[in-house]
Amino acid sequence: MTAPGGWQDAAEWPGSLPGDLLMGTVFGMVPADDITEPVGNSFPGEDRSAEWPTHARWFGVLIAALGLGLLVTAVALPPASAGLGTHKQLGLPSCNWITTMDLPCPTCGMTTAFSHTVRGEWPSAFRAQPMGLLLCLVAAMAVIGGTWTALVGNGPGRLIATSWNRWWTWTLVILVVAAWGWKIAVYRGVF
Fold this sequence. Notes:
Layout: H1 18-26, H2 52-76, H3 96-101, H4 110-118, H5 122-128, H6 130-152, H7 157-163, H8 166-187
Helix pairs in contact: 2-4, 2-6, 4-5, 4-6, 5-6
């Protein structure tokens, strides 16, 4: 089997790392400087491979900045003791679902969960909103992944794109609905 770039085996692969060969052949990932196909919205035959590392780096900076912004905001906000309402410290109004229907919305408790998670208070974060705990961890991973991409010009995007499928989508939907059900149960005093 020929690896990307025309190498026949790991000994010919730059750096001689079998793991790189495996990642290149199994997952379709190649180092950014080895991309020879048009990337993005290229016209057929137009080679934009030289632009990819720069775009990847800027995308990495953007992802890291967004994740860091979320985490810094969570650190700056003390969590509300009620398990929801931390967002009001940002000048946002109370949740309309609770005001009109006495029912928490699917995102109720997210800001509180983020605020607990960054403080290492994971049981409190889970009680406030399990999906908020998970998304805060994803934000932390985004900072790490974005920083890596900004530094090396090649990130996990292709791996994620090739491994994401309908099962991940349905798992995410089920987790969101389950977290919302949990939040409703906590709000109603079941737990």
